[in-house]
Amino acid sequence: MINYIQNKKNGIRIIPFGGLGEIGKNMMAIEVDKEIFIIDCGIGFPGQQVTDIDFYIPDFSYLVENVERIKAILVTHGHEDHIGAIPYLIKNMGLPIYASSLTNGLIRVKLKEHGLAAETELNDIEPGVPIKIGNVEIEFFRVCHSIPDAMGISIKTPLGKIIHTGDFKIDHTPVDGKPTNFQAMSTVAGEGVLLLCSDSTYSENEGYTPSEFIIEEAFNKVIGEAKGRIIVATFASLISRMQQVIDIAARYDRKVTIAGKSMINNVKMAKKMGYLNIPDDMLIPLDEATKIKDRRIVILATGAQGEPSSALTRIANSDHKHLKIKKGDTIIVSASPIPGNEKAISKTIDNLFRQGADVFYNKNSQVHVHGHASREELKLMISLFKPKYFMPIHGEYRHLVAHARLARRMGVDKDNAFVIEDGDVLFLTNESGEVVGNIGTELVSVKGNKISSH
Ligand SMILES: [Zn+2]
Ligand SMILES: [Zn+2]
């Protein structure tokens, strides 16, 4: 249901569909001269209280009504909260997708599950190579995050560039060996930035986010000293973390196996595309893993968020087909809880300890660093792009407020930093920016094959 939008001309409209004022289902539309460009299209996870749905997707009603104007879906990176809802959006629309090759690989896995892979146009994008889509020039630039091949996006409009950072941190020693490239970003920043949309997840955190490199030490110690089996639970899309585990497992002469369907699919894809380096004889099927010595195996598993049907939760609840916890097992939960999941994870960890396992998790060991910039990095991004307008994205409301305040302190005009929420329509001209309406987004949930609006 569309509420109202003032009909203003000769400007640019920015419409967030999700991710502003909430964590998850990130999606935004940018309208330049009637052409609509979509950035990301993710899912949101329900909190602890909601048990009867699988996840939320953005409300696409506005886009359904304006489908002929949509030129492309641009995707920053392959995390669920950025790609998970793509199959639901393109089902009847047939929109072309532009992303890095790994991101496209992860999207393809999803499209296959929905029977949409054959009919969907996926375009692999290289950072630093501008492309023309519709009447607009678009350029992706590399950023560091907790998944390889993450990118920010620059959209060149007649009023100046719109920069979307995607999820990012600044990392000089990332696992994939591709540190933050300031030179490339400052090149993108040239010619003037109209609007910067920047990741607000950790805008309350002072200082810098630690590099991915520091996990290496904790993992090396835990895996090196363990005498029995090791189970590492993390996100199915955290490719760089899996690579770290694989490298350390090789160091201690352990084989690796995967528990959890989504992780098996992602590993297969990432290995094929060259994003995961693992010797063929090192990766073994789960049922074979039970036959080799405990001190020779590392099990990578889904379930770092305590998801009910995931491998780790099943193992903790003693209802996994192949794996049962025994004394001497070491478990590493390499993730920090997404808000709302804390209880589920704590319960899983309790159950694992109770059955005699030793558990390492974010509270007792440095087995996880997150992938989002803290305040000093956010400042750097603002000073690098020097935007006229600033819009904090990807965060709950207080994160957006903290980030907007930071931008004002960095010199963005008081009236030019916009804290807006899902559905708001921000209208920008060279003179000013204002919210001119709201598209009236509803809560849309998915349970199995059923999609319902609330
Ligand atoms: Zn992400
Ligand atoms: Zn995200």
Give a quick set of tags describing it.
2 domains; 23 strands; Rossmann fold; Metallo-beta-lactamase, Chain A; 13 helices; binds zinc ion; 454 residues; single chain; alpha/beta; globular; 9-stranded mixed sheet
The end-to-end distance, rounded to whole angstroms, is 12 Å
Kindly state the percentage of residues in helix: 25-40%
Strand content: 15-25%
Q: What is the domain total for the residues?
A: 2
**How many strands, what sense, and barrel or not for the largest sheet?**
9 strands, mixed
CATH class of the largest domain: Alpha Beta
Characterize the overall form: globular
Q: Supply the CATH architecture of the largest domain.
A: 4-Layer Sandwich
The CATH topology annotation of the largest domain reads as Metallo-beta-lactamase, Chain A
Question: Can you say what the CATH homologous superfamily of the largest domain is?
Answer: Ribonuclease Z/Hydroxyacylglutathione hydrolase-like
Number of strands: 23
How are the strands of the biggest sheet laid out side by side?
1-21-20-2-3-4-6-7-8
Mean pLDDT: 93
What molecules are bound to this protein? Answer: zinc ion
